[in-house]
Please model this.
Amino acid sequence: MSRVLEFRVALTVEDYEEAVRFYRDGLGLTVEETWDRPDGRVAILGVEGATLELLSTAMAETVDQVEAGDRVSGKVRLALKVEDPVAVGESLVDAGAERLGGPVETPWGDTNVRVRAPDGMQLTLFATPPRD
Model:
């Protein structure tokens, strides 16, 4: 079996410039590469420590209820560990996001804030408590 060397989430967005500004400037992702071609544009934005989180439908409903008070996310939601979810959430709202919920302390001990990016993608901003 081959080992995965890189993990990407590919988002197709209606307003490319707004999406780049939001994820680069609002969230602070690093622009690693851009392609500007006659047939379209791409920006590769990076963050260390990417993971794939798989949730059962029942757990996705639970997480949505805890973070936003209702089942609001689709099949894909970005979950980003940050130092201060409240501050990052406010920064993203200032950058054009819509606050959907939080801050809340989850039953598993995280502090979470849920926002919707201008492109419609939902983001969970979370901080974990120190583990012994």
